[in-house]
Design a protein that fits this description.
disordered C terminus; 232 residues; Spore Coat Polysaccharide Biosynthesis Protein SpsA, Chain A; globular; alpha/beta; four-stranded mixed beta sheet
């Protein structure tokens, strides 16, 4: 998982336009922690890659057991994703995610791994035109796969299509997972809370409660459309 240190003003800046920078930073911290607990049993080797590098000691021991904190290193997003994919012990199948989708489930990660039994590349499309997950089968030809991440307009709505086009040129068979929405804007946050309100899972209810406490503590905001634990 790739994440940023939760410093106000440096993370979730689009969401901060609605809730303020302190609340946005706390939400980002909550999402990062939540993902490590939900996915604690996924894969054989789990890493939290943090940015900036000097903040790695601050996040040590902040996550579920079994996650190793490491620095992301320099470079643009594409270079850092490729570095994540290339980490030792160089497993045959690697899945990289961000910290913007706190309800990502072990089942979705398992579907990505299963897809890599048949295809070289798996992508989880995000509603904004990017992707929330990328997985790669590195059995052969791994050295040329770095070009998959070069000359991409990161942060735009063209990332997914540009990546698919590059994969086709490289001759990579690609599988797409279900489209999901990252939590980047106020409307995304409202939809997340409504979804959590409809869930009977205690894990979802706990996430909803902690999320609402952050908003009330830092922003004095109540999410619309949610009353008495039920979505309108």
């Amino acid at each position: 998982m790739m994440t940023k240190y939760w410093q106000p003003g440096r993370v979730k800046t689009r969401l901060a336009a609605s809730v303020g920078h302190p609340a946005a930073a706390r939400l980002h911290r909550l999402f990062t922690h939540e993902i490590t607990y939900r996915l604690a049993g996924c894969g054989d080797f789990r890493v939290v890659l943090a940015s900036p590098d000097h903040c790695v000691p601050r996040i040590a021991n902040r996550f579920a057991a079994g996650w190793q904190p490491l620095p992301q290193g320099d470079g643009n997003l594409g270079q850092r994703i490729w570095r994540a994919i290339s980490l030792p012990p160089h497993p045959a199948k690697v899945v990289v995610i961000g910290a913007d989708l706190p309800t990502l489930s072990p089942g979705e990660i398992e579907r990505a791994y299963q897809a890599l039994d048949r295809d070289r590349l798996v992508l989880g499309p995000a509603g904004d035109g990017g992707y929330y997950l990328i997985g790669m089968n590195r059995h052969s030809g791994s050295s040329r796969l770095a070009t998959l991440f070069s000359d991409i307009a990161w942060g735009t709505g063209e990332v997914l299509q540009a990546t698919l086009s590059r994969a086709e040129k490289l001759g990579l068979t690609t599988r797409l997972l279900d489209t999901r929405d990252d939590i980047d804007h106020w409307d995304d946050l409202v939809r997340l809370v409504k979804r959590l309100s409809r869930s009977a899972d205690p894990v979802d209810q706990d996430l909803k409660s902690r999320l609402e406490k952050i908003l009330m503590r830092h922003s004095m905001i109540r999410l619309p459309g949610v009353a008495n634990g039920k979505a309108d």
